[in-house]
Every structure is written in C-alpha cells, then in structure tokens.
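Record 1 of the preview.
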Amino acid sequence: MKFGEKVRALRIEHHMSQTQLAEEIGVSIRTIGSYEHGYSYPKNRILYDVLARTLHCEVSYLKNEDDDEISMDLKTAGVLDDADLEVAEEANELLYKTAQMFRNKEVPMKVKDKFTLGVLQLLCDTKEKQEAEEQTPVQPDDSAPEEGNKEEHESNGM
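->
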C-alpha cells in the first residue's frame, strides 16, 4: 500500500475528514489531498511524526511502501496456486488487521503480547494436531470382512 492510500485509510478509520486532519497536523486541506492522491509527501521528519501520532500509527508504517499483498508475491513466485490464493488473501486480511492493531499506540503492549502468544499457541496446537493425524494409520472398516475371512463367512453360511 502506498503512502497516500495509508493516510486515507487511517484517516477514514479514525472518522476524520480531510479538514480535521489538516487542522490537526497544521497543513492545508490541499496538502492532505495531495498526500492521499500520491502527489506529495511530508517534507520533514517532524511532519511525519505528527501525522503518525494523529493517525495512531508508526512513522515507519507511513514511510514503508513495500508491504504489498503477500499472496500476490507468492503466486508470482510460483509458491501458491489458484486454490491457495483465496486462503492466502484471507490470511493477508488478518495480517493487515493485526498490523493495524499493533500500530495503534492506544492498545497496551501487554494486550499485543497476549495476542501474539495466543496466535503462536494456536499455531503450535494446530501443527501438533495435523502431525498426529498424519502419523495415525488408517483403521480398516470393521463392517467389511477381511479377504482371508471372506471364505470362512461364506462356508459358515454367512
């Protein structure tokens, strides 16, 4: 996502108009429009700091434009096929929402830590369950007679 897209998305997420954001950070409405359309960027570090604080995110998030969708990169690289793409897009949605929560300075760090530990525990539990299922041999169906016993059943009148 590009800088301007991030500014617009965060502004909307925080229920701010362009006018409110402009007043809050001390620039013109035209400047906010220019940011959101990708025509310009803040001219100094202080303006990035004020913008990030106002939008409840990190400066690095605003400056980093290399966080395009992971699923598209993986598909291009041949790691995902079309069947995996839908799942990867859902995962990206969750990652995006998680990143927003992590960037929100109003969310206490202990909440972020518990969330992270919960996700890691869920991953470990799921992995253990899948590995156990892969190692469990498939049990034969008890209702069908085994090949060796088929003749016995027939000779006994069954």
